[in-house]
Design goal:
Blueprint: E1 7-11, H1 17-30, E2 34-39, H2 42-46, E3 52-53, H3 54-58, H4 77-84, E4 85-91, H5 98-112, E5 122-125, H6 141-147, E6 159-163, H7 174-184, E7 190-192, E8 202-204, H8 218-226, H9 230-233, H10 237-241, H11 250-261
Parallel strand pairs: 1-6, 2-3, 2-4, 4-5
Antiparallel strand pairs: 7-8
Length: 285
């Protein structure tokens, strides 16, 4: 199987991305060649055979800047693995800050003793720029754009491929899928709006057929349409597996979660987690 230089396939959901990844991995591994499948998020990494997060695989630092490199020590098993690797697959690439890729690029050039892009390794970066871009705390739209992969010096050296045919969408979902793409491409119908919280000054028009019935408690309507008979079905794993509610704001997530918890009987348990890094070297008691 002949491999080329760094490639960047751009695709939307349902266009066969995971199928292509799995096919490439199976083909190369059947030839006793090494493939390193990574992803920008843990969930995406679980969909790849032997997948890991890019930060875990390449020891990418958490605090990134323009001069960042990976924390890979010389003469280690990881260095040997990278040197023998035939292909690196990186899913959900647009989610990561451009400094992430630039740091990996510098590290691979050092490991391979080469001035070629990614040290001459074939890298497949996949993703959709219409989905989640790098998250910049308290950043503006301009900050997000500047942090994106297509603002990196690597971009002009990538071969771009596009997959556009949705292989997963059902017949009755085609119009909705088409509208979603129009939203992502900035082609959806809009109406002029001067609302204070609307940064771009325009709202997207949503057809009535895509809206929940108006009136009453909107949280109640969301629950009835997405999780009907929740009170009697929340123990059913399959019932929960095929349903999801998506929202862009954390405060909305909390509001919906709090409402749903009032519908579920039983003792409430609270699980705590940390979203900051402990830089101390001392052992905790």
């Amino acid at each position: 199987m002949q491999l080329m230089d760094t490639s960047l396939p751009l695709w939307s959901w349902g266009t066969g991305k995971t199928y292509i990844y799995r096919t490439l991995i199976s083909k190369l591994r059947s030839e006793k060649r090494i493939v390193l499948p990574v992803a920008s998020s843990g969930i995406a990494a679980t969909l790849l055979p032997g997948g890991r997060t890019a930060h875990s695989r390449f020891k990418i630092p958490i605090d990134l800047h323009e001069e960042s490199v990976c924390d890979i020590k010389g003469n280690t098993m990881l260095v040997g693995l990278i040197q023998e690797t035939s292909l690196i697959i990186w899913d959900e690439a647009p989610m990561a800050h451009r400094h992430t890729f630039e740091g990996v690029d510098k590290t691979l050039r050092d490991i391979m003793s080469s001035d070629k892009l990614f040290g001459g390794k074939t890298v497949l970066l996949g993703g959709d720029f219409r989905q989640v871009l790098p998250v910049i705390p308290k950043g503006s739209r301009q900050d997000t754009v500047l942090a994106s992969l297509n603002r990196s010096y690597l971009w002009n050296q990538c071969n771009i491929f596009t997959l556009s045919k949705n292989l997963r969408v059902q017949q009755d979902e085609k119009e909705f899928a088409k509208w979603i793409l129009q939203v992502g491409n900035g082609e959806a119908k809009t109406e002029t709006s001067f609302q204070k919280d609307c940064e771009e000054g325009e709202n997207i028009e949503i057809e009535e057929s895509l809206m929940l019935p108006r009136g009453g408690n909107p949280l109640e309507e969301i629950q009835k349409s997405t999780f009907p008979d929740l009170e009697n079905s929340f123990h059913d794993r399959e019932y929960l597996r095929v349903r999801a509610i998506l929202t862009p704001r954390n405060e909305t997530v909390e509001e919906i979660n709090d409402f749903f918890l009032t519908k579920i009987s039983g003792e409430m348990k609270e699980y705590l987690s940390a979203d900051t890094i402990d830089h101390s070297d001392s052992d905790l008691d």
